[in-house]
Amino acid sequence: MTNAKVQQxxxxxxxxxxxxxxxxxxxxxxxxxxxxxxxxxxxxxxxxQGINECECRGATQRVSIGSILFINPYEIHTGSAAGAMPxxxxxxxxxxxxxxxxxxxxxxxxxxLPFFPALIAADARLAKMFVDTHxxxxxxxxxxxxxxxxxxxxxxxxxxxxxxxxxLPALGNENVAVKRAKEYxxxxxxxxxxxxxxxxxxxxxxxxxxxxxxxxxxxPPHEYVINLRIQRAKRxxxxxxxxxxxxxxxxxxxxxxxxxxxxxxxxIPPGRYLKKSNFVQNLSVDLQ
Length: 288
What we know:
This protein is an alpha+beta fold.
């Protein structure tokens, strides 16, 4: 009975409203055998465990761990687990319209519908980026982070593996645009800002803004906002505010998100930071 529960298939679907309602799938211990069928969207998948056997384009292929599977819209294909190891994979289902938009932003002008000529691509670093982005969106992140992670992921997928490789146009002097974006982020750091809204402030496309901001500042916009929030949270804690107040007032969606990012940036959890700060303050008072 216990083994049966462990091997039970788990199929999870969710969407990203902040990114054209993109559909995600996370499948563990797949037992379902998909018959010959097609999708209106692309199917882009990375296997995390086991082997996915896929019949497509007149041949049967096996997708192993770390490889990326590309199925273009309307391509007939099948899918099933092969071998003794339980199959675990994550998939994204972008629409043709979404990938045309991403390709056009990369190119700096209108681009044709991307086509992926290879069914399977061996690109371990990009596959890891795919899985990490998938997990972050599944866990729930703010619109700015969601749009940044997915836009950068799809841009790389298109640039590295589509039939028409896109060379990014050279960046110019976008200091004024980046300055406007930084000022907007500083003023609205505790709000749910989207990359789309930020790009309108900067008068750039979202992808152009991402490239320019990272080049000028050294961080993408969502990481810049997290740093703004942590610095403001430190001030609030030193003013005697509670951990929950600091998390809420700086725009973190939960206490756990606040704790995780604070420790990542500062090296210690916020509660421990507060205790150490109180010790220093008390010591300075005693020495006076």
